[in-house]
Specification:
single chain; alpha+beta; conserved putative lor/sdh protein from methanococcus maripaludis s2 fold; Elongation Factor Tu (Ef-tu), domain 3; OB fold (Dihydrolipoamide Acetyltransferase, E2P); 6-stranded mixed sheet; 6-stranded antiparallel barrel; elongated; RND family efflux transporter, MFP subunit; MdtA-like_BSH
Length: about 425
C-alpha cells in the first residue's frame, strides 16, 4: 500500500521547475519569424508606394512687391568705371623737362601737365621765321621792279604813237612788265608758304607743352624729368608713352554683367540701388542707362551700364559694387498687391485657367500636390508675377506632366533647386 502511495507522489508535476530548453528556443524562433515577415511587408509597401509617386522638379517661391515700395527683381555685381579716362602723352618725341602733376591732383581742361625740351622746336621756328623774312624781301624787290616796268611801258606807249620809238622796243617793255607781274605773284605765294611753315614750327613748339584734355583727377604719374617720351614708344622699354592718367570723376558709372536668362528683367530707365563693397551701408540711387546689344559667348552674359545719381569722392574707378534692379515704385496712394515670382514653366492651362501644382508639404521629399488657380501679373524674363494663388515659401512643380492631378503623390527629384 505504501508502495502505491509513493508511486502516486512521483507522478505529481513540479511547477517550480524551469521549462525545457527546446520549448524556449522554439518560442524565440517564432517571434523572429514574425518580425521578419512584418519588416518584409513594410519594405514591400514602401517599394509599391514609391513606385506610384511621380518624380518632379520643383522651385521655391520668393515674395516680391509690397505696397508702394520698390522691390528688387534681380541682383548683380560689377565695377565702377569711368566713361572719360585718358593717358595723356605728348604729340612729339622729346625729353621731359618738367612734370607738374602728382597723383590725386585735380587738373582743369587745358592746364599744363608737363613740358618737353623745346630746343629743336625753337630752332625750327627760328629758321621758319628767317625764311619768311627772306620771302618778304623778295616780294618787295619784285614789286619795285614791276613799278619801274609799268612806268617804262607808259612812257613808251606815248612815244610809239608818235613814232619816236619802234614797236619792237615797246613790245619788249610790255613783256618785261608781264614777267615781273608773274614774279610778284610767285613771291607772294612763297611768302604765304613761309608763313605757313612758321605757323607749323610754332605748333611744334606748342607740342612740347603737354596739357590736360579735360578736367579730372590724376590717378597715375608715368614720367619723370630727363626721360624720353614718345606717342609711338620709339625707344622700346626705355621710352615712356605717357605723362600721366587722368579720370573725369563726373563720368563714373557702373558696369555689370547680367546672365542671358535674366536680361529680360532689365529695361533702360529702370531704377537701381547700388552698394559699394567698401561702404556696405551706403545705398546709392542709380538708373539703367543702356543695355549693350551684344552677349559674351564664354560667360553667357550681357553688359549693362548704370548711371549713378550721386557724385562723391568716395566713389573711385574699379571699385566692386553690388546692384539691385528695382521695379518701378507705385504712385502715392496706389498699391500693388504683394505677389511672388514664379518660373513660367510652372504655369499651365487647365480648363481655360492658369494654374500651378504646389506641394502640400513644402520641403519634403514626397508630398501630395494641390492644384492652385492663379492670378497673373507682369512677365519678367522667364518668370511671371503671380498676384494670387501662391505665397512666398510655396513649392511648385516645374513642367508638370499632362496627367498630373490634384492630390497626386509626387517625389521631388534629387537635383532640384530653388528659384
Amino acid at each position: 500500500m505504501n508502495d502505491s502511495a509513493d508511486l502516486l507522489k512521483e507522478l505529481k508535476i513540479d511547477r517550480s521547475a524551469p521549462p525545457p530548453r527546446e520549448s524556449r528556443r522554439a518560442w524565440l524562433y517564432g517571434i523572429g519569424v514574425a518580425a521578419v515577415v512584418l519588416l518584409a511587408s513594410f519594405v514591400a509597401w514602401l517599394v509599391v508606394s514609391r513606385g506610384d509617386a511621380i518624380e518632379v522638379r520643383t522651385a521655391r517661391m520668393v515674395a516680391i512687391g509690397n505696397g508702394n515700395a520698390s522691390t528688387s527683381v534681380l541682383d548683380a555685381t560689377g565695377y565702377v568705371v569711368a566713361r572719360r579716362m585718358a593717358t595723356v602723352s605728348a604729340k612729339v618725341t622729346g625729353k621731359v623737362r618738367e612734370v607738374l602733376i602728382e597723383e590725386g591732383q585735380r587738373v582743369e581742361a587745358g592746364e599744363v601737365m608737363a613740358t618737353l625740351d623745346p630746343v629743336d622746336a625753337d630752332a625750327q621756328r627760328t629758321l621758319a621765321a628767317d625764311q619768311l623774312g627772306a620771302a618778304r624781301s623778295q616780294v618787295e624787290f619784285a614789286r619795285a621792279q614791276l613799278r619801274e616796268a609799268e612806268a617804262t611801258v607808259g612812257r613808251l606807249s606815248q612815244l610809239v604813237d608818235q613814232q619816236l620809238v619802234s614797236r619792237a622796243q615797246y613790245d619788249q617793255a610790255v613783256a618785261e612788265r608781264d614777267a615781273l607781274r608773274a614774279q610778284v605773284a610767285t613771291t607772294d605765294r612763297q611768302t604765304r608758304v613761309a608763313q605757313d611753315q612758321l605757323a607749323i614750327a610754332a605748333l611744334g613748339v606748342d607740342n612740347t607743352v603737354v596739357r590736360a584734355p579735360f578736367a579730372g583727377v590724376v590717378i597715375a604719374k608715368a614720367a619723370q624729368p630727363g626721360e624720353m617720351i614718345s606717342p609711338l614708344s620709339a625707344g622700346g622699354g626705355f621710352t615712356r608713352t605717357g605723362i600721366g592718367t587722368i579720370v573725369d570723376m563726373d563720368s563714373l558709372e557702373v558696369e555689370v554683367d547680367v546672365g542671358e536668362s535674366y536680361i529680360g528683367r532689365v529695361k533702360p530707365g529702370m531704377p537701381v540701388e547700388a552698394t559699394l563693397n567698401a561702404y556696405p551701408d551706403w545705398k546709392i540711387p542709380a538708373e539703367v542707362t543702356a543695355i549693350i546689344p551684344t552677349a559674351d559667348r564664354g560667360k553667357a552674359t550681357v553688359k549693362v551700364r548704370i548711371a549713378l545719381h550721386e557724385q562723391d569722392q568716395r566713389i573711385v574707378p574699379d571699385m566692386g559694387v553690388r546692384v539691385s534692379f528695382l521695379e518701378q515704385a507705385r504712385p502715392e496712394g496706389e498699391e500693388r498687391p504683394a505677389g511672388v515670382l514664379v518660373p513660367a514653366a510652372a504655369i499651365v492651362e487647365r480648363d481655360g485657367r492658369s494654374v500651378a501644382y504646389a506641394l502640400a508639404e513644402p520641403g519634403t521629399a514626397e508630398s501630395e500636390v494641390e492644384l492652385r488657380t492663379l492670378e497673373l501679373g507682369r512677365t519678367l524674363g522667364d518668370d511671371r508675377e503671380v498676384l494670387a494663388g501662391l505665397a512666398g515659401g510655396d513649392e511648385v512643380v516645374i513642367d508638370p506632366p499632362a496627367g498630373l492631378e490634384d492630390g497626386a503623390q509626387v517625389r521631388v527629384a534629387e537635383d532640384d533647386g530653388d528659384a
